Amino acid sequence: MNLITLINLLNVPKIGQQRIRLLISHIGQDLNPFELSIKELCQVKGIDQQSANEIVKYSDFEYGIIEYESAINKGYSILSFWDDNYPMLLKKIYNPPVILYCKGKPLQYKEDCVAIVGTRRFTPYGKMVTQKITNDLIASNISIVSGLARGIDTITHKETVKFGGRTIAVLGSGIDVIYPAENQKLVDEICDKGSIISEFPLRTKPDRGNFPMRNRIISGLSHATVIIEAGDRSGAILTALNAVDQNRDVFAVPGRITDKQSIGSNRMIKNGAVPISNGDDIISEINPRLFNPLKSVQKTISIELTKQERLIFDHLGHDPVHIDELAKSMKIGITALLQILLKLELKNAVHQIGGKQFVRA
User: Fold this and answer.
1) Which tens digit of pLDDT belongs to each residue from 286-321?
2) What is the value of pTM for the model shown?
3) Which residues of the chain form CATH 3.40.50.450?
4) Considering the domain 104-289 in this protein, what is its CATH number?
5) Closest among 286, 231, 275, 272 to 253, alpha carbons compared
């Protein structure tokens, strides 16, 4: 799909990323959605009359050209959901970004990442633990994801850069708007081995509403999210909750019950997050799910499937497939298909990621 077309689609009022993915999945990447009629657009699941009208009447095509050329001229790359190196873990979440603006080294389709997030007002204990866990993980060739915010995020990025690891910083602003501004030098250092990414258009300011959207990407890129010192209403807790929704592991560092900075992280442990004291605790838990496990022999789990379950399982991949498309390609009724998919979910063979879309587990 032409990147300029995607940028313009994202600029259409009241369309949203979910509808765009459904639209492109339905019509393919060769057709131009702006050249379709209202009738043709309304044949796509999720595209109603109002959405179709917005697409048909859109006329600001210069916007996509200017945005694309500005990004390229500034040395950024743009990755689309349909590109081969779009991260597989991120593709599996509900509502993954249609495009990502990137600076530094390219993202990878299969990359073993762990997210580390926490409070802006850290204690000496929190700093020490962050440095220790970060070093343990990069020693095991794990890439570290965080949000470039002041506090634990910045410590995480700096420590990874200091010891030659790879880190990915996810911004809540346009990729050309570094926030906080004092991290500009850190951004340049990250880009030597790591990546800076954002789903937001150029020149987007770091508005408060952007950060919950940013958080889903932090956890979505990662096998697990680690919480280090999070207060009662910390944004790090929202990242952890995203990880739970995405069926990813959540770890938390225990803190003193009298520390305000540990109220949220201690509560996460109480509610099921795994308490940890070092990076090895994380590795031992997620190792079987890593793309490159640290042990030479990885145990495999045999899943017994019926012939019909196997056909559906083999048809699914790591790209989300809508139930209607699956029923059409498999020539199975929706009701019967949902029953089979439920059985596959109970066997941990497939996952439903929202919007009636399914992927192989």
Assistant:
1) 999 999 998 643 444 457 889 888 888 888 887 788
2) 0.84
3) 104-289
4) 3.40.50.450
5) 275
| pLDDT band of 150, cuts 50, 70, 90 | very high
Q: For 1-73, CATH number?
A: 1.10.150
Identify the architecture of domain 307-360 in CATH.
Answer: Orthogonal Bundle (1.10)
